[in-house]
Amino acid sequence: DPQCMDLKEEIAAYHGLSPEEVLIGNGSTELIYLVARALRPRRALVVTPAFSEYERALRLAGISIAFHSTSEAEDFTPRHGLDSLGCDMVFLANPTNPGGALLTPNQLLPIAEVLDASGVYFVVDEAFVDFVEEASIKTKLEKFSRLVILRSFTKFFGIPGIRLGYVLASPMIIRRLEELREPWSVNVMAQAFGRACLSDLQFMARTRRVISRQREYLHDSLSHIDGLRVFQGQANYLLVKLTQPGMTASGLQRMLLPHRILIRDASNFRGLNE
Description:
InterPro entries: Aminotransferase_I/II_large, NHTrfase_class1_PyrdxlP-BS, PyrdxlP-dep_Trfase, PyrdxlP-dep_Trfase_major, PyrdxlP-dep_Trfase_small. With 274 residues, the chain is of the alpha/beta class.
């Protein structure tokens, strides 16, 4: 099934959309590159700190890039300015990665309205939104013809080696993506995993409850440690700033590893440091 029709129909039904608004790929990273290559904006805006593959995909496609840096003072939450740099595509993760900040659909709506009216593609990476599904902007696809939503099975379902993701967008955009998509990119095992994941509603509900509870516990526990500033994330990770002089992310990572605790050194994200 090179078109992944069975899985496409199940994804569409799960989100209340039509199969013509769904494109499945070999992980959402493949789809980031496909979006850049197929839609080919002249200039793209990336909201930072952000997943590095946005920038890499745009550069490989020969697209000029501008950056909108969110501030620590606002918990790295994008508030304004996404329409001010003369770009015709905007990449925004929601929840943000690595900050974990979340914009509600009501907060995203005015951004989407301004961008759509200006003819700007709005690419919203919802790789982690399964943890807060009600925050998805998917219900606005009918309203905004240039809205592109990236989704991933990897994060919520814990299947990184399977490589499975998908795009939600207007039928016109989906057709453009399909024209440049590599054939046979999604194997039959990945398709079977995807269908199994979508059918396990009990797992989804339990995971959301557990992650929400454990995230709050971890946030509260870390906040009581001197030398740490913990940002209030809404996904399954927390961004932590080291405020103790001399302490670095790479140094802390080395210290914790013998204790079988692995942290992500976020210093290589544009806009962050050690």
